[in-house]
Write the structure tokens for this entry.
Amino acid sequence: MKTNLLLSLTLLFGFGIAKAQNLPANPDPGKCYVKCITKDEFKNVEETVEVYPAYTRLQVVPATYRTVEERVLLKEASKKFVYVPATYETVEVPYVKKEGRTDLSVIPASFGSSSRTYESYPKTSGWEYKDIPCDSPSKDDCVSACFVEYPARFSDVSFTTLSSDASTNSKPISEVGATYSKKVIKTPARMEEIEIPAQYQTIKRQVINTPASTTSVNVPAKTKTITKTVLAKKGGITTWEEVDCGLMSANVLPIFYETASARITSASKKVIDDTLLPLLNSKPVSIELMSHTDSRGNDSYNQSLSQQRANSVVNYLVSKGISRSRLSAKGYGETRLVNRCSNGVQCSEAQHQKNRRTEFRVLGN
């Protein structure tokens, strides 16, 4: 009872998922389906397009010239100034070589003699007392007083008199004259102005007779019939495509490349034409291309080389008309070896060959 109930629930659950995902009804056991979204459908149409516009082409009519003569100034008129120096003449100039003077001679003073009487003592007078003989014991009684007058006394004095005082006698001495030669300006220096005439020359030059012009020519447009791809039917409808279950896993293709190159050989292109193109043309599925190398050589170099090789397969399929959006390229280098032949391990050429492979698998959209 419990087994039947579990089976019923499983069938109901699986039916619900299938209905939700629009999976195919009543699928056969062991079948695999890939969810695909229908692509847009396109068609080719022809259209006439203008590839070169109509335009006007201009042709230039060159200008014409005529020759004319013209008198041109080569050097402007100017003036030249010439310096004329002064002229001199010689004259005699008198001068006092030695000035005149007056010489003096001395005349001594002259003297005379004379005399003069002087009062040497003045006239005097006065009382004079004289003793007189007397018998009186008092002397005062034996004195007499007489008033006496004496005349003045005189004497003669000789002296020298000045007849003439000292003086000078002047004698004039004439000056001594002489002359010297002196150059004096006869005609002063001056500047003479000289006219320098202008210089001319007759030249020939070409002047425009008729200016350049253009003539126009109408050039018609050019058209071309092209074929272009237009959208015929919009895609986007989800469908489930039945595919071989083995295609969902990695499938090794015998695709070979030139040594140390990503260039696909002619034999490998035939493998792609016979294997991948029919699948991609018959079903709207997407695939992934995976490229691998053996362990020999630099790891980073092998990684880059494997990516280039996977890209080469994608580019080849695109050249055959497959949309790039349906293709994915991935290089794994030596990271997914299928045997023990890793770095440093001695292996045969056949063992290394197994690692140098290109695989593909179908992807769901």
Q: What stands out?
A: The radius of gyration is 82 Å.
